[in-house]
Request: fold
Amino acid sequence: MRRAVLIAIPYAWLLALFLVPFGIVLKISLSDTAIAIPPYVPTLDLAEGWAGFRAFLSELDFENFVWLTEDDLYWKAYLSSLKIALISTIFTLLVGYPMAYGMARAPEEWRPTLMMLVILPFWTSFLIRVYAWMGILSNEGFLNQALLWLGVIGEPLALLNTNTAVYIGIVYTYLPFMILPIYAALDRLDGSLIEAAEDLGCSRLQAFWLVTIPLSRPGIIAGSFLVFIPVLGEFVIPSLLGGSGTLMIGKVLWEEFFSNRDWPVASAVAVVLLLILVIPIVLFQRNQQKQAEAEQ
Amino acid sequence: MTRLSWFNVVSLTLGFAFLYIPMLILIIFSFNESKLVTVWAGFSTKWYGELMQNEAFLNAAWVTVKVAVMSSTLATVLGTMAAYVMVRGGRFMGRTLFSGMIYAPLVMPEVITGLSLLLLFIGIGLDRGVLTIVLAHTTFSMCYVSVVVSSRLVTFDRSLEEAALDLGCSPAEAFRLVTLPIIAPAVISGWLLAFTLSLDDLVIASFTSGPSATTLPIKIFSAVRLGVSPEINALSTIMIAIVTVGVITASLVSKRAMVRQKQEEQAAARTT
Amino acid sequence: MGDIVSSTVFEPWTDPQAEPLIRFRNVTKRFGSFTAIDDLTLDIYEKEFFALLGPSGCGKTTMMRMLAGFENPTEGSIELAGRDIANVPPNKRAVNMMFQSYALFPHLNIWDNIAFGLRRDKMPKVDLEARVEEMLKLTRLEKFAKRKPHQISGGQRQRVALARSLAKAPKLLLLDEPLGALDKKLRQDTQFELMDIQEKTGTTFVIVTHDQEEAMTVASRVAVMDEGHLMQVATPDRIYENPESVYVADFIGDVNIIQGRASAVGGETYSIDWAEGQGQLTATSATSFDNGQTCHLAIRPEKVTITADRPEVADNVVQGRVHDIAYLGNLSTYHVELPNGTIIKAQTANTRRISRRSFTWEDPVWLSWTATAGVLLAN
Reply:
C-alpha cells in the first residue's frame, strides 16, 4: 500500500508535467495557426462529446510538417545544427581527452584538486560563461587586442557573431561534460595493464593506443553524447555568440515561438528535433547500460 | 599511473588556462573605471555600487532565489522518492516508462521542455508566474536529484536495511532511521545541484515565466543581448565568487572528513 | 576437528517426545526457474547450535533468509515454536540475525547500535540501559561504547553485531558466515567465544558457513547441503566418521575414495574387487550390498598406515611408490602411487625431526588398513 503511494507520487508528477506536455506539443504541431487565443485551431471542446472529438481529430493534419520540408530554412537549420554539434563534439574530445589523461596520471594527492577545478565552472552560471567570451571575442576584445599587440594580425579579426565563436563557446561550456566521464574511465584503468603492455614489447605510444584508448572508450562515448545531445538543441550560445549566419534549430524554435508566435510550426520543429534526438539518446542509454553491467 | 610526462603537464596547463582565463578577464574588467569593458581605464568598484542601486536586478535576484529554494526542495523530495522506487521498487506496471521519464529530461533540449510546459500551462489556464517556474524547474531538476541519489542507493549495503527490519523497524522506520541518515550526503548534493540548475536556467524560465516574475538569468540575457556591460561583469563576479567559495568549502569539508575517517580506520585496525 | 563433547548428553533429536523449535515441512523455494531449496524437511531443537554447511549456492543462505523473514517459501511451511511464520514480516519475528557484513549502522555509535532493536520495542529507559550494558559486558565492548563502527577493528565489529542481534533476547539467532571476515587466528578464538555465549544465553543458534572446520567446531549438529538438498544431518563426529554419501565424505576433510564391486563374504563383511591385478579389499558395512553392486570405499588418510616392509597381519595391503609428500609441520601426507596409477593418501604424525624421516620420494612403500577403517558407500 505504502509502496503504491511511493510509486504513484513521482510517477503522477512526471506524467502530468513531462509526458502530457509532449502530447500537447504533438497535438498542436498537427493544428493550424490562427489569430486567436490560443493562437491555433482546432481546440478540443469536451462539451461536444464524442462527435466533437471526432471533428477535432479530423481537423488535425501534417501541414506544418510539410511546411518544414518546403521552407529550406528548417532543414538547413537541422543540418547545420547536426554539423555544429558533430564538429564541436570532436573539438571538445580533442581538448578534453588530453586533460582527462593528464588528470588520471597526476599524483594521487593532486587529483581531488584537479577534479574540483574541472567541476567548478560547471557550477557557475552557463550564461555567465558564455557572456565571458563576448568580451574576449569582440572586435575590440581581449583576444584581438592581444593578437594586434603581438603583431600576429594587422587589423582586428571578426570573431564574435560567427560560427567560430559558437564553436569556441560550445567547447568551453561543455568541456567538463567531456572530461568527467573520460577521467572516470581512465581512473579505473589498472596501471599494471600499461606496464604489462610495455613488458610485452609495446612502446609507450603503442601501449597508449592499444590499451589506454580502447579501455577508455566507454568514457569517450559517454562524454561525446553528453556534449552532442544538448548542443543539438542549444539556444544560448548561438544567440549570444553566433551571427545572423548561424543557423541552429534551438534558435529557430525560439524565434518561431516568441517572435513569429507561430505555435503550431514551433511545435512541429520540436517534434522533429525530438525524433532526430531519439537515435543518439538510445545509443547513449545503451552505452551507459553496458558500462553499468560491466561494472557488476 | 602517476608518471606525468611533459605532454600531460602542457595539456593540463593549457586546458585549465582555457577554462579559467575567460572568467579571470571577466572579473578583472568588472573593476574597470571605464564603461567600455574592453579598455582598461583604472581600478574602480563603481559598477558594484550601481548594481546595488538597480531595482530590476535586485528584484529578479530575489525571485530567482525564491524559485530556486522552492523548486530544489520539492525536487529533492520527489527525486529521492523516484530514486528509491527505481532502485528498491522492484517490478511494477510501467516501470520502463517511469525510468524513461526520469532519464529523458536529462538529455532533453531545454527549448523543447520549456515549450511543452508552456503549452501545458496555457492549456490548463494556469497564469504564468513564480508558481509555473517552480513547477517547471522541479520537473527537470527532480530527475537530476534522482540520478544522484539512486547512484548512492545502488552502492548502499542492503543488509543495513534488512538489519533494521530484523531489529523491529517497519519499512518506513527503516528508511527514516537508517537509509536516510546514511544517504543524506547524496540527498544534500542532489539539493545543491537542483538549486544551481534552477539559479542558472534561462531557457525554461523564459518559456514559463510571466510578466509578474522575471528571473535573474532572463534579466541578464536581455541586457547582454545588447552588448557587454560592466554592470553585468560585476554581477557575474559576485555570482562566481559565491559559487567558488561554496565549492571550495564543500570540497575542503568532505576532504577533511575523508582524511579523518581514514585515520580513524587505520587506528582501529592497529588496536586489534 | 575439535568437537567438544559436553559432559551432560544434549541430544533432543534422539528423543521422539521433544518438540522442535523450528520445523521445515516440505519447503521448496524457487527464484524464477531456479530451485534454491527442493522439498526440504528439517527439525531444529531449542538450545541447539545448528550449522548449515555447504558450498556457495547450495541453498543454505536461502534457508536462513526464510527463517529471518526476508524470503517466503514457495511451497511447504516453516514453523517457529509450533506457529506457522509464513506471513509474519521480519520486524514481527522473535528471530534475529547477525549479518555476514555485520550491517552495523555507520551513523550510530556502538551503544546506539546495540540499543537500536530495544528502542523499537519501546523498552523503558532504565531496562534498556541495563540491557545494553549487559550486552557490552558479554561481548567485552564496554570500552568502545561511544565509538562509531569505523573506529573499531574487524573483530570488535563482529562482537558488536553479535551483541546487537542478541540484545532482544530472540528465540532464535541466525548467524550468516559470522566469522568469514576475520583472519584465521582470530576466527579460531572467536569460535570458542561464540560457543561460550551460546551456552551462557541458552539461545538457539543457526549458523550458515562454508567452512567445514568452523561447523565441526561450534555445532551440536551439522546439516551438509548441496543444490537445495540436505545430504546429511548429524553430529560432527558422525558426519566425519560415518558419512552417508561420497559427497559428504569428500566435502568434510580429506578422504581416499576407491571404487569397486562388492561381494558378500559373510556377516557384515564384504570383499571389494577394485582393480585389475590388485588383490581384493575387505571392508565391513552395516548397510548391505548385492553381489557385484558398485560401491565406494572411503578411507581417511590418517587411518592408512605406511610402512617400508609388508606388514605381517593386515586386512588390506597394497604396494606403491611415494609420489609426493605434503609436509604440514605436525603431520605429513604421503601421496602413494600404486602400479595401476591410483593415488592413495596416507597421513602420519611427525613425531621425529624431518631429517630423520623414514620415507622420501620414489621410495617403495606398503599401505595397510583394517577392515573397519573405511566406510562402504553406495553412492
Observations:
- The domain at 65-295 of chain A is CATH 1.10.3720.10 (MetI-like fold).
- The longest strand of chain A covers residues 32-33.
- The first helix of chain A runs from residue 2 to 29.
